[in-house]
Every structure is written in C-alpha cells, then in structure tokens.
Amino acid sequence: MSRLRVGCVGTGFIAGQHLAALAGFPDVDIVAVADAARDRAEDVAQRYQARAYDDGLRMLETEELDAVWVCVPPFAHGPVEDAAIDRRLPLFVEKPLAMDLPTAAQLAARIRDTGLLTCVGYHWRSLDVVEQAARLLRDTPAQLVTGAWLDRTPAAPWWSQRSSSGGQLVEQTTHLVDLARLLVGEVDRVQALEATVAREAWPAADVPTASAVLLSFRSGAIGTISSSCVLDRRRQVGLRLVAPGRLVDISEVGLYDHTLRIADDSGEQVVQTDENPIAREDRAFLDALRTGGDVPVTYEDALRTHAVVCAADRSARDGGIPLQVDGFLAEQTPSPGEAPK
Ligand SMILES: NC(=O)c1ccc[n+]([C@@H]2O[C@H](COP(=O)([O-])OP(=O)(O)OC[C@H]3O[C@@H](n4cnc5c(N)ncnc54)[C@H](O)[C@@H]3O)[C@@H](O)[C@H]2O)c1
User: Fold this and answer.
1) Closest CA to 190 of 71, 325, 22
2) Cα of 161 to ligand 1 centre, how many Å?
C-alpha cells in the first residue's frame, strides 16, 4: 500500500492527539509540522522525524503532501486553509472553523467550488455511543434537548480573549451544538444571553463567564444549552435528550472518556467508553482520501454548526435578539472576491 505524506499546522495540545494517532497508522508518514512557536515545532518534529517550520504557509509551499491537519487556535484560521485549497490539498480542520462566520463561510464556498475532501474535528461524531444514541433517537425523536458545558477557564493564552478564541460558545460549546444537530436535526432559530463577571485570577479575560442559549429545531424540538467557565475544573459537559418514553444522556469527562445513559421502561443502561474518537476520525478521513468514502463531518456540514454558534454569540452580544440561522449565515457570507467583514 502506498504511504500517505501528511503535515500538521499547529503543534499544541490537539495536534499532539492527532499526531499520536497518525503515527500509529501503518500507511502514514508525518513529514512536516509547523507552529508559530518554532521551538514547539522543532520538539514535535524531532519526535516524529519530520521537518519543522515556523510558518504553515512555507510548509505548504515546500513540502509535497497528500493531506494537511490544521490545528491552530480560532483566530489563526484562514490563510493556511486558503493555501491548501489553492493546492487542492485535502484538509482536516480542527473545530471551530474560525473565530467568526465570514472567514468560515468564504472558505466553505471555495471548498464547495473545488470539491476538495475535508473533515472537521467534531470528534463526538466518531463515538460508538453517539451512533447508538442516534439509532435510538431515529425511532423516537427527541422533543427537548438540554445541554451544559460547565468547566474551568482553559490555560491556553489565547482562550480567555474573545478576539482570539471567539468565547466559550464558539470554542467549546460548539461540540454540543454539533451533537444536537446530529441527534435532533437542523437548528432554525436561536436566542442567547451572556454574563461577563470580572475575575481576579483572570484580569485580562474578556470572554463571557456564562451564557444560555435557546434553540428551536426544524423538527419542532426545542432546547437550551448553558455554558460557564468559572469552575475549578470540568464538572459537567454533555447533552440530555428527552424523547417519548426515553431519556438519553451523553457526557464527556475528557477526550477519551464518554458515557451514554439510556433510561426507558426497560430500565437504565449505562455505557462508559474509553474509545479514541480522534484516531477514528483521522482514520475515516484517510480512508476517504484513499477510497473516496464518507467522512464523519465535512467542512460544509460543520459550517452549519458554526453558523448556529455564531448566531447565538451575536444574539447574546445584542442582548438576546432572536435570529434565524439561515438568514444570519446568508448575511455573514461574503460575496465572491469580497474580504470577510
Ligand atoms: N476536538 C477537540 O475536542 C479539541 C480539543 C482541544 C482543542 N481543540 C481545538 O484545536 C484548536 C487548537 O487548540 P489547542 O488546545 O491545540 O491549542 P494550543 O494552544 O495547545 O495549540 C495551538 C498551537 O497553534 C500555534 N499557532 C497559533 N497560531 C498559529 C499559526 N498562525 N500558524 C501555526 N501555528 C500557530 C500555537 O503556537 C500553539 O502551539 C482550537 O481551535 C481548539 O478549539 C479541539
């Protein structure tokens, strides 16, 4: 079997998870990595006998790759994807697609035009327990969704600044919105509120410390998702779905620690799993590259999730105005040739 030559832009936490998974595949060579922090790129490159770059664009200009993983913080999306699209280089992009919607909508349009293979790191979609929940909810559709991301403030230097991360809704809670879309269907309308309380331990932070989102789904289902980042550690991350006669609860303690609970008239079933969704999504993307098969979530699909969180973020910034997701996405999509607003 021919070997696939891959590169990765960003060599922080999540890149480390992808690179560890990729290094375990017998048909993959990690040939190059890039990070704005050169020492980090060099450390990681040494681990995988790859070449190090301090600039992802230069890595793409120099290396002959079969695919690239883009694992940069929200504010840094755009230029690397554009360069990969120019070269028709298949793209794995970590969520969120960008800090804002126009950047992602413009990239999505280019990806659509070129028919490029993409995959996005909404890893919950690569869990058996999520597939099991999806099968159950196809038989008895959910009518109510309640979700929560109740956590600490991540230590990454870019996270606590809204102009770098987009805030908790855009950066973290997006996983729950994506899961809700998978399990309940498209979101039509959102409305949100946020609170930002000053904290001594985070003097420069300006991300909202709490938010509450109301969702209305095309199916007629409704939902709420609450987020906060003021706890000492992660206390609750998950989604509950209420369907006729059945309660389904999916939660995440860490990337490799998920639990599915199903309660119905046959009793309560609890499935705890340490499956590796990062390796699964990476393998699915590589298999699609080889065979043209499906990936768990394309850029186009992820754009819908990103549109929902960005609409919720806008609603919250504007004091809770209701927004139609389709209308917001159309308004935020730059015309061809126009720079993202
Ligand atoms: N799927 C998941 O569950 C999951 C988990 C963690 C992080 N993420 C996502 O992955 C992204 C990165 O998060 P992280 O935790 O790895 O952050 P991190 O801070 O650990 O790593 C980000 C790295 O990107 C580098 N970087 C910044 N700008 C760059 C640029 N223009 N070019 C090249 N490198 C650049 C930084 O120097 C840093 O090393 C975030 O968007 C985050 O939401 C996803």
Assistant:
1) 325
2) 14
